[in-house]
Structure formats: structure tokens, C-alpha cells
Amino acid sequence: MNKRNIVVLFGGQSSEHEISCISAVTIMKNINKDKYNIYPVGITKEGNWRIYHGKIEDLTVDSWVGNSDNAIISPDATDKSLIIFKEDGIVKVDVDIVFPALHGLYGEDGSVQGLLELAGIPYVGCGILASSVSMDKLFTKVIVDRLGIRQAKYVPVYKKEMDDIKEVVAKIERQLEYPVFVKPSNAGSSKGITKAHNRGELFDGLELAIKHDSKLLIEETIVGREVECAVLGNYHPRTSNVGEIISAAEFYDYDSKYNDIGSKTIINPDVPKITLKKIRDCAEQIFRAVDGRGLARADFFIEEESGEVVFNEINTLPGFTSISMYPMLWEDKGMSNEELVDRLIEFAFNK
Ligand SMILES: Nc1ncnc2c1ncn2[C@@H]1O[C@H](COP(=O)(O)OP(=O)(O)OP(=O)(O)O)[C@@H](O)[C@H]1O
Ligand SMILES: [Mg+2]
């Protein structure tokens, strides 16, 4: 069989640029080299696309740009190629498939998926709609409400309303009790999220969140355990067992997620069978409802008092580092990282 060419996109303009570089290395290490030629294409924080020439093991956030050339994926569907700009001219490489190992803004929200649709090149993971709906917390809420799956009670706030922030606060206080979570609808990785315990903190939280997005979501606080479930496949996806997050901070914010060694994840924690089944069913239903493809990780709470399952969010390009929940949940099911990456690529060819 002829080897196929795979472009792995990494980095990107989002706040999760660094995590993406680590995810991409894990993914590339696990791509079957007998089947695929790998072309690692990084996107700088400024949005410059470049092909990395070094060894995959040597790829680091700070050094990769130093060993790279400008390179772009042509949007021309008759091209289906990567155009590399070398000092002595242009080289075109046929592209069979793309693995967007990107997280957050422009990587997980349908933007890059739109480019790849235009280019007519198959790619791993969700399409434009599933990506953008899942990235936008408010839209996800609307879709999941229709499924009758429980979520935290929420109040949407639009930028225009912020002209009268006192009225916004009054509106929230009429519907929710403190503490509340204040979130930008579309930001990614906990940026701009705060927990407000009183009116003063709510004012501050609103002012901060609106810097990140023009649409906000204020939520009741769910007291309970935090668990995540991996989804893999296209129309009849498989679901994993759950992994639990034990956050070192008051909530699982950016710092506790990536910088705080006190935070822990437990694969296959003790959870009642019926609860586990409910979570897996909900994860599959939500994946279908947003029209998911390939992979996603659905996050839930198990409410302490009631034991009820409460949906939090769905991530269409979950972290793929060696300590990320998504690959660990499949390892728990007996699937190696190599096998997982291979399946993801196969699913992309067969969307
Ligand atoms: N309604 C809520 N009740 C209790 N805790 C919450 C609630 N919403 C969020 N949290 C806490 O805040 C953390 C971050 O919130 P959330 O997962 O919604 O956003 P995010 O982390 O930005 O998204 P992503 O996981 O895509 O990076 C959660 O992991 C959880 O610890
Ligand atoms: Mg989250």
C-alpha cells in the first residue's frame, strides 16, 4: 500500500497554544509510520503557518519555529496540497488527510474545519457545526436543553445589556443564588471564568468575562464530583468509562488544570453503575445531537446531594497529552494510544 500523507496542525492562536504543541507531539509519536508520512505544520500565536523540519521528539513550544519554513494548506479543492515556501522556490505536497491537533479558538470552533472543507481534504474530528456549537457554551446549553438532560440553571447575558450592569446583576439575582459561575460563552480553557460568591464579585466577574466574549453565561453552582467521558466514532460512537477530576483549587481553572500539581485525575473511580450508564448514555446522545464526528470528551457533574448527573460541556478536540483524560480513558478500555490515533484517522476517512 502506498503511504499516505498526513498533515498534523499544532500550536494555533488560542490560549491553549502550548497544550496543543504537547498534544501534537503525543499524536505524532503514535501515528503509524508504515502507513503515513507525517508533515507537522505549526501555527504561531500570531497566526503564521510553518512546516517544522526537526525530529518529532525535539519539538518544543519555544524551539520549533527556529527550524521551519512558511507553509500553507491551499484552500483550492482542486489542489489538495500543502504549499511550502523554501528559499529556492515553492514545493507542493499532496495531502491525504489532516489531523488538527489544535485546541480552542480557531482550532476547535469550526474555523480550521471550514478551511479544510473548502480544501476538500478529509480531517480528524468534528465538522464545522459540531465544533462551533460545542465551543459556544450557550449554544450547547440550548441543544442539550432539548434533550432533557439536566444542566446547571443559567442566565445568558449579551454585551449590549452590559450598558446597564446593575440591571444585569438584578436579573441574575432574580433567577439564581450565590455562588454563581460567570463564563464567557466562547473562550476556551477557563479563561475569563470566575466564581462569584456575592454581588461585588459578580460585578467584577461580569466585567472580566465580557473582555473575553460578547456573550456570557451565568450559572448556578453545582456541588458535586466532576467526571469526564470519552466518545469515539462517527454515527454509532463508543463511550468510555469515566475519569474523575480532583481539583486542587476551588474550581478546575486554567492554573489548576495545567500548572497545579495538586490536581489529580482518577480513571474509573468508584461511581454507581446506574450513574455511569447514565453518563455514557448522555455523552452519546449529546455527541449525536451536536452532529459529532470522530471524537469528543463530554464533562459532567455528579451532584452530591441528589446523585444526579448534570452535564457541563463537550470538548471536540480534547487534550491529547500523555496525562490527558481522553487517551487515558481509552487505555483503560484496552486501546493503546497508537491504536486510538489509527482509529481516529480511519474515522476521518469514513465520515
Ligand atoms: N456550574 C458550575 N458549578 C460548579 N462548578 C463549575 C460550574 N461551571 C464550571 N465549574 C468549574 O469550573 C471549571 C471550568 O469551567 P468549564 O469547564 O465550563 O469551562 P472551561 O474549562 O473553560 O472549558 P474547557 O474545559 O473547554 O477548557 C469546571 O471544570 C468546574 O471545575
Ligand atoms: Mg472544562
UniProtKB/TrEMBL annotation:
Residues annotated as the enzyme's active site: 16, 189, 324
SUPFAM superfamilies, alphabetized: Glutathione synthetase ATP-binding domain-like, PreATP-grasp domain
Binding site for Mg(2+) 2: 313, 315
Subcellular location: Cytoplasm
GO biological process, one term: cell wall organization
Chain ranges passing through the membrane: none
Protein name according to UniProt: D-alanine--D-alanine ligase
Organism: Vallitalea guaymasensis
